[in-house]
Amino acid sequence: MVKTVAVVGAGASGLAAIKCCIDEGLEPVCFERSEDIGGLWRFTNIPEDGRASIYKSVIINTSKEMMCFSDFPIPEDFPNYMHNAKIMEYFYMYAEKFSLMKFIQFKTNVCSIRKNLDFPSNGQWIVTTEKEGKQNTNIFDAILICSGHHTIPHLPLTCFPGIEMFKGQYIHSRDYKTPDDFRDKRILVVGIGNSGVDIAVELSWMAKQVFLSTRRGAWILNRVSNNGYPVDIIYFCRYLYFADKVLPSCFINYITERIVNERFDHGNFGLLPKHRFYSQHPTVNDELPNRIISGRVKIKSNVKKFRKSDVVFEDGTVEKDIDVVIFATGYSFTFPFCDESVLSVTDNNISLYKNIFPLCLNKNTMAVIGLIQPLGAIMPVSEQQARLATRVFKGLVKLPSAQTMIADVELKKQKIANRYDGEFISR
Predict the structure, then answer these.
(1) Backbone torsions φ then ψ of 3, nearest 5 degrees
(2) Which pairing describes strands 311-313 and 303-306: parallel, antiparallel, or unpaired?
(3) Considering only CA atoms, which of 23, 9, 20, 25 is closest in space to residue 387?
(4) pLDDT tops 60 at residue 421
(5) How many separate helices (H) and strands (E) can be counted in the chain?
(6) CA–CA separation, 249 vs 255, rounded Å?
(7) How many CB atoms lie within 10 A of CB 164?
(8) Averaged over 347-357, what is the pLDDT?
(9) Residue 129: pLDDT band by 50, 70, 90 thresholds?
(10) What global pTM score does this model have?
(11) ∠ CA 306-150-88, rounded to 5°
(12) Percentage with pLDDT > 90 across the chain
C-alpha cells in the first residue's frame, strides 16, 4: 500500500522532502501557506505573516558547489555565491525537473496535526488545513515538517532597559528590506550575526553613521579564500574533517583563529570574541573590516540602556541622537499546529533524535527537516535528512529504542554545553 505523507512547507527543505518521497514511492502532499515555493529565499517587499522574510540584497553565504541538491547541480553560468533571486531561479528549475509543483497546495495553512485514534497501531495522523476560509481534514501515514526557523522574530525588549522611553524608530531585522529609508540617519544595529553585519555594512554607504553593537564579538570569515576559491570549498573537506576528529580541539581552534586573524586582527577591530572559533557559527562578510577601518561602521559593546535619543553601552560610552535601532537578535521557532506532547520547544530548543525525529513516539512516522544551523548549506543536509526519514517511514531503516534515542540526545546536549553556553541567539 502506498503511504501518504504530509509535507509542511515548500521551502528548500520542503522541496527536498517532496523529491525524497517520490524517490521512495511515497505519495506526498505539500501544504504551503504562501503563494509560491522558496520559503526563506523568496523576497517580498512586505513581510508576510508566518513566513520567513529577507532583505533585498541578501546573497547566500555558501557556494553553489556546496549548496546544490545531490542530483541537480547548479548551472555553470550561475555565480559561486548567489543572490536570492538566483537561488529562486534554481529552485524553480529543480521543481520543474522533478515535477514537484503538482504535489504542492499553495495558500494552504496547516491548522493542526494530531494523532489518529488508532495511532498506536498504524502511526497515522489527522491533518487539518485551511484555504480561503474553508477547512479540510485528511489522514496521512506520515508527516514531514519543513516549516523552518526564521519566521518568528526574537525581540527581547526586556533586556534593553529604557527602550520604552526611546523616541527614535526601532525594528527587528526581519522588517528591514532596503537602505532607501535610512539615508543620513544615525543608526544602531544590535547583533553581529550574518543579518546584523550585512545590514550594518549596507547602511554604512548612505547613513550618517552606523554603530554595530555586540555582546560577545564574532569570528568573521570572508567568502573568497585562498587563490580566490570559495571559503567552504577550501575548509569543508575530508582532510580537515579527519583532522578535527584526531587532533585536540584547542589545537584546531588555535590554527583556525591564527589563519582568520591573518586577514585582520579581530582584537584591533573590536571584534575579538569571548568564544573559540568552533564554539559558535562564524559570521560571513567580506566588507565589514573595510567599513570599520574607514569609520563608516563603529563597533560598540553591549547596550546597557536607552534614553530618549541616546544609547548607553556597557563600556560606559554614550552615543547621542540615535535615529534608528535595528535589532538583529535572531528568531524563535514554534510548532503551533502540533501538540506539545509531540513537539515541545523550551527556550528555543527542541529534543530530536539526529535533529530529525521526535522522541517517545511508539510509531516513528513524523520527522522535522531542516531545523538545524549547519556549518555550511542547509539544502544538502535537508536532503539527507528527508532521505533517512522516508526510508524510516517505509520500514527500510529501523530507529533505536526510545531509551537509546533519549540517551543519544542527552549526550549531544552535554557535548554542546561543554563547548558553548547553549544560547541559541547570538548577538
Answers:
(1) -90, 135
(2) antiparallel
(3) 20
(4) no
(5) 11, 22
(6) 10
(7) 8
(8) 93
(9) very high
(10) 0.92
(11) 125
(12) 84
